[in-house]
């Protein structure tokens, strides 16, 4: 999942809105109106007793403040620390687009939701939620005071979001993750740390918080800490998680330069992949967690790995010059990979692997998962491999789309066939279509600028 943030150092780059709590599937869905080892010395100074007497969050686990109602996260008001009242009070957000809108807001964050049907925008005045197809603003929240939101993480099409303050006048501290329930129009929980939060990832059953050198995994239902991971310095907050109901795969930087750590929680296995010789700049994970794409700080090559055994499946070349990779995205079928960079071009590559993630949640064998041939793009050059430099036998992109340089873009595949959606930190929204046979330049289908919009569609 692609994410963009403007606050230095930046976090990573990676539909209709419904009022639905992830832990209450029977609730009506109505559209809204507008390291492995705990170290008790590091992340927090206080401990909080949980609802269950045999469960305790110690100092390494961070402070957890739960909502006021049992329906929020299953904890009574009497069990909530009294010190939480200030941070949990209603910040008085407004959905009136005219408030604080004398000038266009500065964008602080962009991210797609898990199925790429929506995207979230964090601004210096609040946050907004947009639908991708058709493009329209679903709602916005403008805060009376402060208002800067540096991270907004959606949970599919649900009313629950994770937000972190950002910008010069943040709405919340940058070391706290606030769990926002838009149905109640307030925060129902928070996770507090002693260092800045770099990224947040959500699953229906987990909350993952990324700090500079640690990652915390919490149970969504009760905010119980279930795992913590140490990483190399991770200022971009690189972390991706699978979304399949039958398995939970987490990918993050390892403890060495160029190393990726893969956690398979269902099988309780950890895999380390030395993906590149230089530091990891970006990666993407398929929905089922079986295939991983990585790019290094050089930005010339993108490598595709099997997360189960760490084998290299394919290598594609973005270009010859160094570039900063902003985002990587798999298509739902894993037939295609999209890449955006600071060179102002979005590339689409044909992949030889098919993880079987499209419309099939059942486990498959490794052979059927990753060895299906999909039209290799370099077969015509295979005879010269080993004779000419590797550059000449590289696999290049099938389709490209040129964008204005000087802006950060993230990309995802659209729900329409052979389309990509591109979001820019300048407020630009592009929908483009590529020809899977002929390739070449993509066709622009739509363009909007959501930064300057003052109305809800």
TrEMBL record:
Residue ranges, compositional bias (Low complexity): 18-37
Keyword Repeat part of the UniProt annotation: yes
Bias kind Polar residues: ranges: 84-105
SUPFAM superfamilies per record: WD40 repeat-like (SSF50978)
Compositional bias segments (type: Basic and acidic residues): 47-59, 67-83
Entries under Gene3D superfamilies matching the protein: YVTN repeat-like/Quinoprotein amine dehydrogenase
Keywords: Repeat, WD repeat
UniProt xrefs under Pfam families: PROPPIN (PF21032)
Protein location: Preautophagosomal structure membrane
Region (Disordered): 1-109
Gene Ontology CC: one annotated term: phagophore assembly site membrane
Bilayer topology: Peripheral membrane protein
Family statement: Belongs to the WD repeat PROPPIN family.
PANTHER family for the chain: WD-REPEAT PROTEIN INTERACTING WITH PHOSPHOINOSIDES WIPI -RELATED
This protein's name: Autophagy-related protein 18a
Lineage: Eukaryota, Viridiplantae, Streptophyta, Embryophyta, Tracheophyta
């Amino acid at each position: 999942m692609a994410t963009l943030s403007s606050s230095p150092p930046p976090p990573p780059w990676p539909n209709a809105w419904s009022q639905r709590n992830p832990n209450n599937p029977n609730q009506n869905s109505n559209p809204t109106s507008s390291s492995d080892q705990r170290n008790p010395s590091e992340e927090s100074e206080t401990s909080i007793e949980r609802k269950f007497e045999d469960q305790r969050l110690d100092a390494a686990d961070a402070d957890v403040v739960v909502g006021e109602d049992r329906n929020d996260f299953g904890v009574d008001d009497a069990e909530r620390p009294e010190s939480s009242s200030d941070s949990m009070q209603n910040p008085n957000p407004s959905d009136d687009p005219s408030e604080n809108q004398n000038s266009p807001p500065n964008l602080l964050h962009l991210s797609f939701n898990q199925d790429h049907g929506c995207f979230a925008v964090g601004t210096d005045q609040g946050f907004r939620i947009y639908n991708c197809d058709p493009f329209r603003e679903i709602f916005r929240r403008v805060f009376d005071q402060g208002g800067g939101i540096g991270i907004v993480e959606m949970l599919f099409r649900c009313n629950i979001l994770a937000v972190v303050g950002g910008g010069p006048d943040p709405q919340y501290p940058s070391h706290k993750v606030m769990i926002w329930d838009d149905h109640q129009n307030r925060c129902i929980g928070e996770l507090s740390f002693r260092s800045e939060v770099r990224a947040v990832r959500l699953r229906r059953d987990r909350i993952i918080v990324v700090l500079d050198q640690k990652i915390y995994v919490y149970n969504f239902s009760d905010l119980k800490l279930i795992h913590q991971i140490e990483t190399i310095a991770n200022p971009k907050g690189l972390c991706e998680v699978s979304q399949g109901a039958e398995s939970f795969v987490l990918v993050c930087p390892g403890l060495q330069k160029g190393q990726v750590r893969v956690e398979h929680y269902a099988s309780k296995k950890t895999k380390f992949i030395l993906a590149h010789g230089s530091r990891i700049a970006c990666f993407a994970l398929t929905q089922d967690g079986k295939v991983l794409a990585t790019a290094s700080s050089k930005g010339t090559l993108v490598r595709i790995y099997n997360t189960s055994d760490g084998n290299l499946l394919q290598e594609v070349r973005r270009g010859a010059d160094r570039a900063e990779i902003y985002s990587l995205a798999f298509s739902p079928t894993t037939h295609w990979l999209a890449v955006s960079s600071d060179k102002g071009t979005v590339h689409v590559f044909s992949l030889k692997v098919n993880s079987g993630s499209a419309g099939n949640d059942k486990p498959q064998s490794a052979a059927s998962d990753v060895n299906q041939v999909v039209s290799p793009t370099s077969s015509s050059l295979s005879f010269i491999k080993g004779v000419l430099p590797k550059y000449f036998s590289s696999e290049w992109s099938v389709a490209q789309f040129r964008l204005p340089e000087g802006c950060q873009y993230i990309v995802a595949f659209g729900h329409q066939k052979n389309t990509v959606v591109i979001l820019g930190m300048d407020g630009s929204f592009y929908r483009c279509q590529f020809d899977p046979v002929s390739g070449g330049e993509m066709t622009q289908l739509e363009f909007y600028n959501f930064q300057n919009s003052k109305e809800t569609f």
